[in-house]
User: Which sequence fits this backbone?
């Protein structure tokens, strides 16, 4: 019997979301720090491209094989400059509106992740009980 990759993938995304939330929170905390450069992390798609989970494709429109590995694939880097705020007089590049938007997006992704895992777990328990 093959292991179920969904739980591994969901765990990897939850780890990625945790690291991204830490970086965004650090950006917000340093919004008034002179010469602080906003940071972001590698997108989750890039992390998946480096992983070794092979997904079966039954339809050309489905996702191709993606995989995941340890958190060494997640890089923290300087974020692209927000064109609305640019570099402030203090040399700071943090845009609070953008960071709060990222934080809301992280919450939505985490909620979706946990909902999918919960639904899949319930479905598996229903099949085992029968």
Assistant:
């Amino acid at each position: 019997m093959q292991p179920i990759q969904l739980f591994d993938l969901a765990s990897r995304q939850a780890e990625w979301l945790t690291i991204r939330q830490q970086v965004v929170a650090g950006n917000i905390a340093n919004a008034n720090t002179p010469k602080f450069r906003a940071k972001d992390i590698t997108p989750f798609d890039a992390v998946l491209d480096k992983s070794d989970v092979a997904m079966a494709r039954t339809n050309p429109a489905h996702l191709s094989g993606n995989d995941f590995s340890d958190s060494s694939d997640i890089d923290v880097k300087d974020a692209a400059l927000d064109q609305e705020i640019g570099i402030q007089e203090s040399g700071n590049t943090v845009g609070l509106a953008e960071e709060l938007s990222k934080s809301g997006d992280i919450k939505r992704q985490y909620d979706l992740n946990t909902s999918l895992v919960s639904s899949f777990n319930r479905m598996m328990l229903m099949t085992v009980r029968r």
About this structure: Residues 5-129 form one domain. Residues 65-70 have pLDDT under 50 and may be disordered. The radius of gyration is 18 Å. The chain has one domain: 5-129.
